[in-house]
Each structure stands twice: as structure tokens, then as C-alpha cells.
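Q: I have 166 residues here and want to know how they pack in 3D. Can you give me a structure?
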Amino acid sequence: MASLTVWRGDITTIDVDAIVNAANNALLGGGGVDGAIHQAAGPQLLEACRALGGCATGDAKWTPGFDLPARFVIHTVGPVWGNGLSGEYDLLARCYRRCLEVAAEIGARTVAFPSISTGAYGMPQQPAAEVAVATVRAFRGPVDTVYFVTFNDEDEARYRALVTAD
């Protein structure tokens, strides 16, 4: 099982093997974390993403990190929140699992995750964090350390409580 850490800051500045991009299906950049990662990585990221041909919700694909401190970017597409009765939590868990599987495939031992689907896609923060932490805890593979990257007091407290709970 990977060591779980909460890190507060800008995901584009963390020095890990791979950062996760909460992307849209086209993988061609957008707002929020996606836009920040594309901007920080430089124009080569967009070209590399074009070559991937998009990504299905719940899946993940990787590119080099280009101008980022991270060697890789793992792009995943989280579910858009509906009513919670349309499989959104299962799709979200699949995102985290697939990202860790991809990390293992490319040899990434340290991975940083943003909070997937909680921005523009509208998923409630607390249950999304619970799914994230539970899914990462359950993963068995060669990833050594997972960082949950937060950007405000509330998110940091939420993830710290979940990470330190037994």
C-alpha cells in the first residue's frame, strides 16, 4: 500500500514522478487544474494530448510532463455529477484506480492527485474525497507515495482527516 500524504499548493510545482490531470474527454485543455497544467507544461503537452485521441470517462492516459517538475502527466476524465444515482462514484473510483495502474505501467513511484470531478463537474467534495482516499488505500501496486494536493483550508482539513483515519 502506498504512503498517503496531503500536500497544499499548486499541483504544477510538486516534484513527483507523475501528476494527475483532471481533464475533459478531448484532453485538449480547459479550465481549473487542466488549464493550469497545460499552461505550466508548455505547448508540447497540447500536441502530445492531440495524439492520444481523447479519453473516456473513468479511463486514464499519460504524456510526458514537458516543462513540469513531474516526469509524467496522467490525464483522467472524471464523471460529471448528476444525482449520485448514475454511477458517478464508481466512475470516480475507476479514475483513481486507472491512474494508479497507468503510474505502475510507466514506472511512476510518486503520484500527485488533484480532487477529481469536484470543480466544474460539480461532484460534492466530501464524498469525492472519501472515494479518492478509499480507492488509493485499496490499490496494491508499485506506487510508493500518493499526494492529495489541496489548495484551501477546507480541502486540506478534509483530506487530512481521511488520510489519518484508520
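Q: Anything worth noting?
A: The chain has one domain: 3-164. The beta strands are 3-8, 18-23, 60-64, 72-77, 110-113, 145-150.
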